[in-house]
Amino acid sequence: MPTVRIRDNENFELSLRRFRRLCEKAGILSDLRQRECYEKPTSRRKRKKAAAVKRYQKKILREKMALERDRQPIGTSK
Questions:
Q1: Crossing angle between the packed helical segments 28-36 and 12-26, to the nearest 10 degrees
Q2: For residue 1, what are the contacts with CB-CB under 8 A and spacing of at least 6?
Q3: Which of 23, 30, 64, 77 is the most exposed place for a label (fewest CB within 10 A)?
Q4: Cα–Cα distance between 40 and 44 in angstroms, integer?
Q5: pLDDT, tens digit, for every residue of 5-54?
Q6: pLDDT in tens, 47-56
Q7: Residue 34 in 3-state DSSP?
Q8: The pTM is what?
């Protein structure tokens, strides 16, 4: 569990923002949402596979865009 020490003369909202950021980095809220309801193993595998496919397609698209950008001659624009 992330802890935040309130500094001298620090605003409460700023401390709360730091705490939320630490919780987000630790993955507490996403873990809580996943454990809120039971997820069947087949559903979990399906969701993870879909996420992997999405990451792979995003990676390919980035590489393709970088290749097109590098291939374009300097001084010309589309």
A1: 60
A2: 28
A3: 77
A4: 6
A5: 888 888 999 999 999 999 999 999 888 988 999 999 999 999 999 999 99
A6: 999 999 999 9
A7: helix
A8: 0.55
Cβ proximity of 29 and 23 under 8 Å: yes
> Can you read off the two tokens belonging to residue 35?
């454990």
Round to whole Å and give the CA distance between 66 and 77: 15
Whose CA is closest to 34, among 23, 47, 22, 21?
47
Q: What residue type is assigned to position 66 of the chain?
A: A
- The answer to whether residues 4 and 15 touch, using CB atoms and an 8 Å cutoff, is yes
- Token digits of residue 47: 């969701």
User: Which are the contacts of 3, defined by CB distance < 8 A and separation ≥ 6?
Assistant: none
